[in-house]
Predict the 3D structure of the following.
Amino acid sequence: MNPSRRKPFLAALLVAVWASTVAAPARSADGDAPPAAKPPAAPAARSGSPDPPVVERLRASGLDVQPGGIIGREFRFWLIAAKDGRRAFAATTAEGYLVLGKIYSPDGALNLDTEGQTPLFMTVEESRAHGLARLTGATPTPATDFAWRTPGRRAAAGPPGSVWDLLGHATAIEEGRAGAPLVYIFVDPYCSYCHRQWEVLRKKVNAGTLRVRWVPVAALDRSHADLGVAGGLLADPRPETLAVWMREQRVRRSESEAAKKALGANMALFQALKVPSVPAILYKDKSGKLVKRVGVTDL
């Protein structure tokens, strides 16, 4: 079992935009594509508070924009989905401006990164480790310092984050013997192929030759219409909970704030890893190379 504890956003926040864009006008719509399922629902920023005009313009352009909560007192966080299944994140100010980039707390801890690979919900230690070093007191590195630019020169792009490290931030249901080869599998509760994948691996998991971290997501329309199922698996991430669902389709549904945050983080990872469908399997081979597979696989 690998649920990460999620800390609440701190009150007053200092905004640092790293290679970011702050703009009131929305971007143009994506091209025609099959409709994609909506991202997990999230609590409205404030009761009775209308959505900013920039958000309505994004929706008018063909994007699905759902509220993700409040950052401090002034910033609202949004989950954005395109018709082709791509997802993005943004924030808006009290004045209605759109913010893309990093948002830090006054002590330098990273609270939100709308464009990077850092997961949205982090532990206190992770938040400080990814924070702005000149505020946290750590030694600045290219990843934790300002994106310094010399006028007239193009800034060099930083190295991408480790996909395997990102998987460690997922809220997962772990089963199998500690020390056995580790596999991550993204599954949707209503995906019949995911159920088959779970059955296929029973013998190896029970024999102690394989360790699996099942990562629940809401990838199918039916799951989006019934988010409480994925939320229930994340609220009680034990192998027994997953087994009852896989065999009997029974789970104590949950739409608690903790479950929504866990599902949102898993969905962000699912999108960031560019995995096309479920079941999606990720593991390292004997040489240490990351392997991605889609579909039922007997590992």
